[in-house]
User: Fold these one by one.
Assistant:
Number 1:
Amino acid sequence: MTNRLRVLRAERAWSQAELADRLKVSRQTVNAIETGKYDPSLPLAFAIARVFQQPIEEIFHPDGANHA
Amino acid sequence: MACSSSGKFPWNLLGWATLSALLAIGSGILRRTEAVPQSLAWLVAILPVAPMVGYFFGVERWMRQLDEMQRMIQLEALLIQFGVTAILVMGYGTLARAGAVPDLPISRSWHWLWFALFWSWLLGQGIVRRKYR
C-alpha cells in the first residue's frame, strides 16, 4: 500500500512529531507509515483521514493502483 | 481508537526488577546466616518472586498504552524472546543429558533463565525495530 502522508504533512508544514501528537501515536509510527514499512489499521487510517480532512482513498492506495 | 503515543521507557518495570534482585540478595544472606526460623524459610525464599507480580502487571499496563505499531513491535520481540530462550533451554538440557555440559539443578540455575529472557528480549527489540525504522 502506498500513501500520500508525507505530501499532505508537508503541505501543512507539520513535523512528524506534530502529526504523531494529533494522531496520538509515536513519531516512529508516523515515520513507518510514511516510508511504507507499516500499514495502519482501519481505525488509525480513519483518524489520519479525519486529521487531513480527506477521504481515506485520497490518502491510501493499494499497490499498483493508478492515482494522481 | 484506543492508542496513544508511547516509546517512553517503563521505569516502573526496572523498579520492580531491581526490587526483586535486592530481595533475592537479602533472601540469600538471611538463608546463609540462618537468621530466620525454619518454619519461615519458605517465606524468605519466595520474597523475590513477589515483585515479579507487579512487574508483569506493569508490562501488561505498558503494552496497553502503546500505539498499534509499538505494540506489534513488542509482540514480535516477545516472539523472538520466547524462541531464543526456548532453544537455549532445550539445547542446554539436551547437552546436559549427554554429559557435554554440567547438569544444573533448577534451584541453582533459574536466574540464568532471567538472564536469557532479558538478552533475548533486547535482541528481539533490535531486530524488530530495525525492520520498522
Note: Chain A has a mean pLDDT of 92.
Number 2:
Amino acid sequence: MTRAQRESISGYLFIAPQFLGFVIFVLGPIIAVFVFSLQSRSLLTGQSAFIGLDNFRRMFIDDRLFLVTMRNTLVFAGGLVPLNIALALALALALSRPRSGLATLRTVFFAPVVTSAVAWAIVWRFLLEADRGLINQYLAILSIEGPNWLREPGWAMLSVIVTRVIKNVGLNMVIFLAAVTNVPEDYYEAATIEGAGPVRKFRSVTFPLIMPTTMMVLVITIVGSFKVFDHIMLMTQGGPGHATTVLVYYIYFQGFQVFRTGYASALSVLLFAVVFALTIAQWSVRKRLSHYET
Amino acid sequence: MRPDAPATARRRFQPRRVLAPLLGSAVLLLIAVPFFFPFWWMITSSFKTATEVFADPSLFPSVWRWRNFIGAFQYQPFARHYFNSVYIALIVTFSTVFICSFSGYAFARLRFRGRSILFVLILSSLMMPAEVTIVPNFFLMNYLGLTNTHWPLILLAVLGAHGALATFIMRQHFLTLPSDVEDAARIDGLSNFGILIRVAMPIAGSAISAVTILTFLHSWNLFLEPLVFINELKLFTLPLSLNNFRDAYGVPLWHLQLAATTMSVVPILLVYIVAQKRIANALAFSGIKG
C-alpha cells in the first residue's frame, strides 16, 4: 500500500464517526422535515398521510395564530437586534480604553452570557412579578405604579426583549471589543491632526473599519433572535394570550403540545428557510467586505 | 493682578477634563446594575424564607437560612439531576474533543478524495439549528427507543451543529501545525493516528480548551432537547429540574427554587471568574463562526 493510499484511508476513518453522525442526525432529519411538511402527521396516533402543500396553505391563509406568531417574531427581532447591537457597540467603545476598573465591568457585562437561560429567566420572573416583584417595589418608592410586566401584552414583549438583551449583549460586546482594539492607533492620530473630535473619529475611522464585524454580528444576532425559545418558554409560555408566541415556540407548541407534527414540520421548513437565507447573506456580505479586513 | 492670571487658572481647572470621564463611569456603573443585580438578588434570596423572598426588597436576608439548600435536595431528586447534568456534560465534552479532533485533523492535514465537499457538508449543519430538526429527531429517537434516556442529549450535542463548530475550530488550529513536526514524527515511524494522538493533540491545547469550554456550556445549558426527549423525573437535567420546584398545586416554592438555581449557577460563575479571558474568547469565536 502506498503512502497516499494509507493517508486517504486514515482520512476516511478519522471523519467516519462525525460523518455518520451528520448523516443520521442532521442530513436525514433535514430531509425528513421537508417530507413531513407535506404530510398530515400526528404524534398522538402515529398516523401520517400525504397532503401536498396543505400545511403551507393553512399556514399562510387559514391559521390566524401563525400570522400573530410571525408578527411577534418580527417585533421581537426588530426590538432585540437594534437594542443589542447599539448597546454592545456602546459598551465596547466605552470599555476599549485601558483603564483600571474597566476590566471588572467587562466581567460583569459578560457574566450573564455564561449563565444558563433557565436560571436567568427564573430570577427575572421573580423580579418582574406584578405587586411583590422587586422592580415594582422599587418603582413604588418613586410613586410609580409598575405594570404587570409579564402578563400584559405589550409589556410582556418588552420584558422578554430587554431581559434577553441583558443576557446576551456581552457576547457581541466582546466581539466588538476585539474589532475596536484592532483599529491601528495611527489612524486616530492622523484624525486628531486633522482636527477630528471623538464623534467624527467614530464616524470616519472606527465605524468603517469595524464594518465587517458589524455585519457579522448583525446576522448572528438576527439568526439568534429568530431561534429564541427557552427564554419565551420560561418567562411567558408564549402568553399572555399569544402576545409573545414566536416561531420556535410555535413549532414546539404545534409539535409537542397539540401533536400536529406535520404542521410543526412545515413551520420548521420556514425557520430553515430564514436561517438559510440569512447565512447566505452573511457569506456574500463577508466576501464583499473582506477587503477591509487586515 | 496680572492680566494673564485668568488664562492660567482656566488651564489648571478644566471641568470637562475631570467631569466627563466621571460622568461616563457613572453611566457605565448604572448600566451594569441589571447585569449584576440579578446574581446578587438570586444568591441573597436563596437564604430567605418563602415569604421573605417577596416581603421586602432588602438586600440581605434577615437570617441566613442554609436550610434552603438542604430543602432543595429533599423536595425532589435534585442531587440526581445535578449528577445527570454533570455526567452528560462530561461525556459530551470528552466525545466532542476526540471525535472533532479526528475529523478536524483529517480535514486539515490528510489528503483524500472529496475532502473539501465533505467538509462543506459537515459545516452546513451550522445552518440547520437543532430547532429545525427537532420534530424528525424526535421520531428518530422514538424509533430507536431512545426517548426518555440521556442518549438524545449526548448524540445530538456531539454530532449536531455544535459538533460541526468544534470540528471547524480544530481544523483551523491543525492548519497552522508546522509540517516539519509531522514529517519528523513520520520519520520516527508514527502512523497518522499516532501523529494525531502523540504529537498534534498535545500541542493543540488552546483549541482543545476552547472546544471544551464551548461544549461544556452548550451541554450544561441545553433546554429544548431535555424538554422534548425526557419526561421521567429521575432523568431530568438541571434546566428541567430548576423549573420543577412547585408544590402539589403548581405554586412555585421560591426559596427552594432560588437555592437550587444558585447551586447551579455559582460553580459556573466561579470558573468563569477564574478563566474569564479564555471563556469570553472561546464564546466570541463561536459567535463569529457559528
Note: The domain at 77-244 of chain B is CATH 1.10.3720.10 (MetI-like fold).
